[in-house]
UniProtKB/TrEMBL annotation:
GO terms, molecular function: guanyl-nucleotide exchange factor activity
Domain DOCKER as annotated: residue spans: 242-688
Record keyword Plastid present: no
Keywords: Guanine-nucleotide releasing factor
The species this protein was found in: Paramoeba aestuarina
UniProt keyword annotation of Protein biosynthesis present: no
Protein name: DOCKER domain-containing protein
Family matches, as InterPro entries: DOCK, DOCK_C_lobe_A, DOCK_C_lobe_C, DOCKER_dom, DOCKER_Lobe_A, DOCKER_Lobe_B, DOCKER_Lobe_C
Entry's family note: Belongs to the DOCK family.
Region (Disordered): 1-32
Length: 690
């Protein structure tokens, strides 16, 4: 090899010497990267530079023993690079010596070295080369031995191995864990054959590697089965992460895995929600464990301000503020020692969330994140960064004003999905609300789910049930899977609508949804033949387990409430909605001629929509004596408001149109006069009974 490792006559590992020699690059059949894709000259240069760095690093370790941070970072960077198997042997030998020399820094000091290097070794434990896996497993076993010798326990290595597995699974490029499982079993076997290992050490190692981590990898293998089902995949990841609430480092990386999957699928709002949850997790643990790093949280008002801002940005992040680890021993055990659990790590996840939010035009949530980012900058008096941040905030505020005025933003659409079939396992028969991007229509979602489930169960085994299907589940083919779709809208009470005046406020923090199903009030009249007098509707209000937005784009429905409306009640709602639209157009700060004319056209031009006059004739005319007197009186009141609203809307339209639209305005005026002539006699004079 290019290096020869020789011991001094004393035999001490700390006096090991390295002699560097240069030799021509020799191609080997098995290498970490596909060397054919690179020229021999480039490979030779890469090899020689790596050898020089390694030799320099050896001298640093020998002559400057207190430079453990520099040595660790260089080793970590080298382990991240692609090398031939032959050269990896030398890096592993270097790491063996490093473990002997810097064992206190690895297992006693409050550093991230143990976690950083454990992750890299775990990565090589899942490598395709048996030789590389064997050397990495041997080094990992050495880590366990040194941790035990120094502390009499394996707390730090247990934590860092679990974190490493979570990080590996979160890598969307990772294809499988078969070799990693074999490496973990090999490490357990090392302890059995190690005569110096104590019984307690072997037992604890077996519990961690032979049971706990193997169980996680088993769950991961199940997870791989759902790779093509983006909703199920993210849901399983979330369930795994919830099992690690007492280990913030591990939970961090499982949540990060969900965020990466969302980003890969283009679901940027959900990815941002994961980042905001991570920010809440980090800041809560920093406040408890490292308060000196976040002085802006020392005052109760500052802490409360941060929490409320995070909750406004992510309405489901409340559980992240609960610190469930043992705060007295957490740091000593190696918890929260990584770069992620620093003020810089906190700001990074917030900036990542903000970048995702801006891409999907969620400017209001971005502003909340901007406020949070301003606190540490003000504390550190970083005025240049504050200037840039405030400039960015001003642009966000301007974007909100413009988008609200032009109504140019497409907010999310929501759909109810019911799954049937034993192949869905625990989700068989469950109802969900799916959150989709604003351009996704019902047919688009139906096509995606058909293809998605088809890739899992076979295209011939997937069937879409119509929304009117009310058959028995037992009648369905047990070998097939079925799903039923319905478009739903966010549901608000009148009081909630007053509290949510802006389009964004009506598109966020949503937990109730509604869809309507028509029915014929006359059993002798089929639904397809039912007219205004017979046609009623059933309003179905659904409540989800968590409000949207959430870290998942699919949330389970927990309650369902049906409200059956009679035909007159149904049409009262139609007229109230029509009046509300007229008032909204007239009360707009800058009236929009296009949308105003659409509402007017549907209200007064009978050739387009004869709805209002027909409703008035049926429920206010002489044939309406069988209707509830109170509802009939209320309907007449609504029609008086409707006529006033149309007159007002026509005045607004007259004031904002150009000369080219005068002819169309005249048509609207004539239509209004016709509606007025038909409606006024019915609402001014009570119907008589003879």
């Amino acid at each position: 090899g290019p290096y020869s490792f020789r011991r001094n006559t004393s035999g001490s590992s700390s006096t090991m010497h390295m002699k560097g020699t240069l030799r021509k690059w020799k191609k080997t059949p098995s290498s970490v990267e596909k060397e054919k894709a690179r020229s021999p000259a480039a490979l030779h240069l890469h090899r020689e530079v790596s050898l020089l760095i390694t030799e320099c690093l050896w001298y640093v370790m020998t002559d400057f023993k207190y430079q453990e941070h520099l040595v660790t970072k260089i080793l970590e960077i080298m382990l991240q690079q692609k090398h031939s198997e032959e050269f990896l042997e030398h890096i592993f030998m270097m790491l063996h010596h490093y473990t002997q020399q810097y064992k206190e820094a690895l297992f006693l000091k409050k550093t991230s070295y143990c976690g950083d290097l454990t992750y890299q070794l775990m990565r090589f434990c899942n490598f395709k080369s048996e030789s590389v896996r064997s050397q990495a497993a041997t080094l990992l076993y050495l880590f366990f031995k040194k941790n035990w010798e120094l502390t009499g326990q394996l707390v730090r290595m247990k934590l860092q191995c679990s974190v490493a597995v979570a990080r590996l699974v979160g890598d969307v490029k990772m294809k499988g864990t078969r070799w990693l499982s074999a490496s973990l079993k090999a490490i357990v076997a090392f302890s059995v054959s190690d005569k110096d290992a104590t019984k307690q050490f072997r037992e604890e190692l077996d519990v961690l590697l032979g049971q706990r981590l193997t169980e996680i990898l088993h769950k991961v293998s199940i997870l791989r089965k759902w790779t093509n089902d983006r909703e199920m995949f993210a849901g399983v990841l979330l369930q795994i992460s919830l099992g690690w609430r007492d280990s913030p480092d591990i939970r961090y990386h499982w949540m990060e895995a969900i965020a990466k999957r969302h980003e890969a699928d283009g679901e940027l709002e959900e990815a941002a929600q994961c980042r905001i949850h991570l920010a809440a997790l980090v800041i809560s643990h920093l406040t408890e464990l490292k308060p000196d790093q976040v002085p802006y949280t020392s005052h109760p008002a500052g802490k409360s301000r941060i929490k409320q801002a995070l909750l406004r940005a992510a309405p489901n992040c409340e559980p992240e503020f609960r610190v469930e680890c043992n705060t007295k021993t957490a740091i000593a055990e190696g918890m929260c020692c990584s770069e992620s659990f620093t003020d810089g790590g906190y700001q990074k996840v917030l900036r990542d969330a903000m970048a995702n939010l801006e891409k999907v035009q969620l400017f209001e949530t971005s502003l909340e994140i901007s406020r949070l980012l301003s606190l540490p900058l003000i504390q550190s008096r970083n005025w240049d960064s504050i200037t840039a941040l405030y400039s960015s905030s001003a642009k966000l505020a301007s974007a909100i004003v413009d988008s609200d005025r032009t109504q140019s933003r497409l907010f999310s659409n929501y759909y109810r999905v019911i799954l049937y079939g034993k192949k869905f396992e625990e989700n068989n028969g469950q109802s969900f609300i799916y959150k989709e991007q604003g351009f996704v229509r019902l047919s688009d979602l139906s096509t995606r789910l058909s293809e998605q489930f088809g890739s899992l169960f076979g295209a011939s085994n997937v069937q879409v049930l119509s929304n009117s299907w009310k058959g028995k589940v037992g009648e369905l083919d047990p070998e097939k899977v079925y799903f039923q779709l319905a478009s739903v809208l966010p549901y608000f009470t009148p009081e909630e609508l007053l509290q949510r005046p802006s389009p964004f406020e009506r598109a966020t923090n949503l937990q109730k949804f509604i869809f309507e199903t028509p029915y014929s009030a006359d059993p002798e009249v089929k639904l397809s033949k039912a007219g205004t007098k017979e046609l009623g509707k059933i309003k179905t209000i659904l409540t989800t387990e968590h409000p949207f937005p959430f870290v998942l784009k699919r949330v389970k429905i927990v309650t369902k409430e049906d409200q059956k409306l009679t035909p007159i009640e149904t049409n009262i709602e139609i007229m109230k909605d029509r009046i509300q639209k007229l008032n909204l157009e007239c009360d707009a700060e800058i009236p929009n001629a296009k949308t105003l004319q659409i509402v007017l056209q549907g209200s007064v031009l009978l050739q387009v929509n004869a709805g209002p006059t027909e409703i008035c004739r049926v429920f206010c005319g002489q044939d309406s004596e069988n209707e509830d007197p109170g509802l009939r009186t209320f309907m007449k009141k609504l029609f008086r408001e409707f006529l006033d609203g149309c007159a007002r809307a026509l005045e607004v339209n007259s004031a904002i149109i150009g000369r080219d639209q005068l002819e169309f305005h005249q048509e609207l005026m004539k239509g209004f006069e016709r509606v007025k002539q038909e409606v006024e006699p019915l609402i001014m004079v009570a119907p008589t009974t003879e």
